[in-house]
């Protein structure tokens, strides 16, 4: 049973990272909470697109929303997510980019 829980959690994390917009959102929230309008501007997407991706990340259990009056603040659901992203970034930097196709241009992944 425990293995299934770990498998499902890693699958959700992998799904979240499989999209560049969701990855950018997670990386932005690594440094602290953010608001949709600011995140949309920072990432360069419409608020509607950002809202759809935030809903996905909430559904995956990676971000949480905290209402603040008329605004909603988003943050990582657990500080360990930020540390996991830091670890993954370190691993990616150690990979030879010539060995892996670019998913943006090669249609892979």
From TrEMBL:
GO terms for biological process: response to cadmium ion; response to lead ion. Residues 2-96 form the HTH arsR-type domain. GO terms for molecular function: cadmium ion sensor activity; DNA binding; DNA-binding transcription factor activity; lead ion binding. The keyword Metal-binding does not apply. It comes from the Bacteria. This is DNA-binding transcriptional regulator, ArsR family. Keywords: DNA-binding.
């Amino acid at each position: 049973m425990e293995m299934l829980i770990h498998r499902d959690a890693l699958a959700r994390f992998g799904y979240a990272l499989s999209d560049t917009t969701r990855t950018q959102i997670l990386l932005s929230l690594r440094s602290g909470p953010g608001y949709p309008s600011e995140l949309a501007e920072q990432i360069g997407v419409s608020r509607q697109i950002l809202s759809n991706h935030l809903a996905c990340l909430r559904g995956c259990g990676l971000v949480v929303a905290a209402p603040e009056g008329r605004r909603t603040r988003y943050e990582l659901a657990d500080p360990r997510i930020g540390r996991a992203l830091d670890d993954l970034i370190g691993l990616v930097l150690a990979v030879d980019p010539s060995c892996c196709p670019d998913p943006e241009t090669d249609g892979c992944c």
